[in-house]
Q: What sequence folds into this?
């Protein structure tokens, strides 16, 4: 469907996400002519703003764009503000009226996209009320986009899911994991399933281990209050890290439909070994940042941050060894790590291949260089294949060489994750959103670890800001005879 039409209702429209990601993404869709005049956005939040205030916020959020052919006022005129109290049922009637008016004005065929981008404790009530007040009944389609966190453990996620499911069907629900909107995350599948080269090797016969790293330089900044109750395991592992794992490990889908792809991902998560409580220490490492030096400046420790308990037991770093117990992957460790306040901002996946039975070309064990396939997800986007080739000298030795595909040359035109995902939702393509079954299995995996950690105080802080994380994360791999590849 080209130029999908809809009235978009954003709950939490004064929030950080709306301003930082959603408005600019809608702008890019508009600029790139993916959406045309048949759209309107209703910003909903508690605060009493006028349309004009709201439009000014929108314009501010796109001030870095400089497209001569786009009239920003014209763009902003599609945005309307509607102050709102989630508990007050009369407000829903007002909102209904507003949606209907804009639907007529912009001829959006009765299509409604509700976007929940506010404190998750209101998600359930809001869904209930939207239904009971008739806002989900329309001539066109109704869809719900819902931001994380989707619960804080399996039980709460299930409760939330039941609540939203009483107002929306599973195929109307689009659970956001913004990593799935990233160009290079989407490239994992294409690379795997559009090349004859990798598939025969993509298994425990030829791959020794896989490493997925997502490191950040920023600390928790202003989000201490949320983060201290969450931690890296729930903030990053339950969603983004396990989603990348599923894409790397899944079987080829029989078709590229959302159902087929998601069902293969679900199978990976079902095969993911859930640890026993007494195994957690052996397979999972947690860390919390101490003070340190970043860009030449001294920075505070996590515990000194605003909104953070001064004796906090919350982890800002997780490394783990995951096992997928199926035919393809049995015996292959998947090492994951993610942390804040690390040396660099970088997300990448390294696939390390097994050594040849005999290598004729290196003299010393330590010169041995395995083949690596590196998928650079961000900030650098590309793929590198590390191989060995002849050195330009008389000796019959081999030297590592790198074949590189660079995807970042056209960065300006590469769609942003949120831009891709909003567009997908408007077109009704749920491939890159998480199905409830994936969410449920991810929580079940994470819950065991979270339980053990909650009940046992860690010796925090245990890594310096600006470092590569705690020592124990290196030992996790050393014990298996591997080490983290620092390839960027
Ligand atoms: C979010 C987490 O989901 O992902 C943040 O809540 C984290 O804590 C962010 O910083 C990382 O996203 P990205 O796209 O910058 O890698």
A:
């Amino acid at each position: 469907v080209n130029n999908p039409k809809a009235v978009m209702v954003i709950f939490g429209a004064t929030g950080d996400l709306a301003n930082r990601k959603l408005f600019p993404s809608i702008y890019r869709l508009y600029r790139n002519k993916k959406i045309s005049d048949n759209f309107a956005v209703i910003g909903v939040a508690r605060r009493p703003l006028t349309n004009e205030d709201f439009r000014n916020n929108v314009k501010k959020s796109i001030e870095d764009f400089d497209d001569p052919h786009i009239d920003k006022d014209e763009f902003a005129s599609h945005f309307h503000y509607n102050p709102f109290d989630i508990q007050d049922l009369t407000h829903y009637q007002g909102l209904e009226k507003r949606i209907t008016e804009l639907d007529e004005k912009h001829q959006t065929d009765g299509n409604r996209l509700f976007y929940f981008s506010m404190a998750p404790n209101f998600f359930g009530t809001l869904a209930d009320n939207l239904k009971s007040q008739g806002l989900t009944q329309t001539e066109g389609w109704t869809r719900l986009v819902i931001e994380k966190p989707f619960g804080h453990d399996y039980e709460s996620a299930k409760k939330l899911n039941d609540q939203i499911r009483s107002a929306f069907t599973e195929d109307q629900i689009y659970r956001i994991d913004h990593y799935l909107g990233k160009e290079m995350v989407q490239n994992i599948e294409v690379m795997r399933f559009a090349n004859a080269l990798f598939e025969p090797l993509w298994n425990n016969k030829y791959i020794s281990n896989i490493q997925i790293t997502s490191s950040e330089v920023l600390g928790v900044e202003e989000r201490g209050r949320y983060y201290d109750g969450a931690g890296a395991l729930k903030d990053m592992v339950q969603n983004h890290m396990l989603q990348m794992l599923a894409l790397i490990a899944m079987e080829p889908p029989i078709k590229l439909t959302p159902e087929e792809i998601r069902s293969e991902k679900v199978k990976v998560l079902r095969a993911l070994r859930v640890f026993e409580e007494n195994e957690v220490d052996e397979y999972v490492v947690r860390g919390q940042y101490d003070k340190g030096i970043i860009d030449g400046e001294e920075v505070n420790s996590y515990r000194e941050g605003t909104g953070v308990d001064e004796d906090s037991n919350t982890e800002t770093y997780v490394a783990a060894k995951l096992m997928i117990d199926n035919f393809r992957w049995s015996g292959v460790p998947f090492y994951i790590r993610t942390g804040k306040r690390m040396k660099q901002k970088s997300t990448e996946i390294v696939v390390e291949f097994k050594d040849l039975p005999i290598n004729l070309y290196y003299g010393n064990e330590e010169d041995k260089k395995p083949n690596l396939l590196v998928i650079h997800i961000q900030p650098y986007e590309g793929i590198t294949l590390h191989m060995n080739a002849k050195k330009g000298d008389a000796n019959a030795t081999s030297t590592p060489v790198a074949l590189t595909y660079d995807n970042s040359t056209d960065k300006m035109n590469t769609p942003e994750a949120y831009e891709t995902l909003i567009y997908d939702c408007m077109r009704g393509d749920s491939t890159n959103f998480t199905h409830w079954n994936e969410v449920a299995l991810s929580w079940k995996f994470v819950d065991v670890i979270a339980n053990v950690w909650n009940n046992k105080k860690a010796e925090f802080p245990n890594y310096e800001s600006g470092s590569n994380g705690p020592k124990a994360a290196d030992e996790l791999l050393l014990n298996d005879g591997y080490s983290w590849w620092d390839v960027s």
The first strand starts at residue 6 and ends at 11. The CA atoms of residues 17 and 259 lie 29 Å apart. The longest helix spans residues 436-454. The pocket of 6-O-phosphono-beta-D-glucopyranose is lined by residues 216, 235, 347 (CB under 6 Å).
